Amino acid sequence: MRIVSGMRPTGRLHVGHLIGTLHNWRRLQETAECFFFVADWHALTTDYDRAQSVGASILEMVIDWLAAGIDPARATIFLQSGVCEHAELHLLLSMITPVTWLERVPTYKETQQQLADRDLSTYGFLGYPVLQAADIVMYGATGVPVGADQVPHVELTREIARRFNRIFGDTFPEPQALLTETPRVPGLDGRKMSKSYNNAVFLADAAAEVRAKLSRMMTDPRRARRRDPGDPDDCPAYQLHRVYCTSEELAFTAEGCRTAGIGCLECKQIMIARAEQELVPIRERRAALAARPDDVRDVLATGTRRARAAAEATMAVVRTRVGVGGRV
Ligand code: TRP
Ligand code: SF4
Predict the structure, then answer these.
(1) Any residues with CB less than 8 A from the CB of 175 and at least 6 apart, and which?
(2) Which residues are 179's β-sheet partners?
(3) Strands 33-38 and 143-146: what pairing?
(4) Of 154, 223, 246, 284, which has the highest C-beta tally within 10 A?
């Protein structure tokens, strides 16, 4: 299995990224050949007017990845814009991608509505999924670990790969989306955890801050008073119990919730203690890495060189198949 996945550098990573994406990456790197990259060109499709902050977020994100256990000895960690071949393949794929396919991608209109303050009527933003397709097929990926919102992009990648193979000869495998088992991670207010909702627990947050945040995380509203029973299935905090607690702890807290035998704070303390078992070492590694930014830059540079070699090999084949491109 060959795995490719990317993340846009849009700021510090939080527990939602950790549970939703990085756990999955960490597991995949044990068994599959993995390419994990910083999608800085993709960030530019929406943040072109603050390109400086995109650039400044790159190293921060790689620090979070490494702290969370993404291992450069097992996975190729690279920077998208450091491999110019992605741009070249994006261009070639754009030649065969009908505009109607792109206009039909759900994220196209959704993101334009969500980010109504920005002008996203650009060529680059429409082509976002074509660039993503280039990222994926460049490394012959068979699996793409993504969240549910990204499944249409992987579907489109399959269609573009199929069309390329039909026109220019069999070149690219059709990748599958690999969905994470964990459902969306709720933030402190019960909505999806997101920096923009201001409801996130960041990997860089200090221990006291994590405790304070999770202690006031939303619970089943039926438990307004201590004596009112609740239902863990309607409790956002309990979603984190499911990730972090043992089966004994899950049974104990669920029973305590339904019988009002336990208070919400006590219940959450059990989850917080478990979450901290993962977050404490991440926080420590993060601090150590942040103190050695040149080493982190080296990791990214080494991975980028490795990715570039693979991309050059792919593009040599692609140019021959297409019959255009390369040396005169
Ligand atoms: N679009 C993805 C996201 O927003 C990021 C991304 C870019 C990606 N290229 C990719 C994910 C290739 C998987 C494979 O999350
Ligand atoms: Fe949630 Fe636990 Fe409170 Fe029940 S007791 S509502 S599971 S925090």
Answers:
(1) 4, 136, 137, 141, 142, 143, 144, 154, 157, 158, 161
(2) 146
(3) unpaired
(4) 154
The whole-model pTM stands at 0.95
Reading the block at residue 220, the tokens are 């089943």
Tokens of 314: 């792919």
Ligand 2, atom 4: closest residue by C-alpha:
257
**Which of 8, 35, 110, 114 for a ligand 1 pocket mutation test, highest count of atoms within 8 Å of Cβ?**
8
Half-sphere exposure of 113 (CA within 13 A, CB side): 5
94: its two tokens: 């754009």
Nearest CA to ligand 1 atom 3: 7
Is residue 132 within 8 Å of 157, Cβ to Cβ?
yes
CA-CA-CA-CA torsion for 315, 97, 163, 43, nearest 10 degrees?
A: 50
Number of Cβ within a 10 Å radius of residue 22: 22
Ligand nearest to the CA of 80: 1
Below-50 pLDDT ranges, the chain: none
pLDDT tens per residue, range 243-302? 999 999 999 999 999 999 999 999 999 999 999 999 999 999 999 999 999 999 999 999
Calculate how far, in angstroms, residue 324's C-alpha sits from the geometric centre of ligand 1: 28
CB neighbour list of residue 228: distance below 8 Å, 6 or more residues apart: 222, 260
Q: How far is the CA of 45 from the centre of ligand 1 (A)?
A: 12
Residue 311 alpha carbon to ligand 1 centre in Å: 17
The pLDDT, as a whole number, for residue 183 is 66
Nearest CA to ligand 1 atom 15: 7
Contact yes or no for 3/143 (Cβ under 8 A): yes
> Which two tokens mark 183?
């459902």
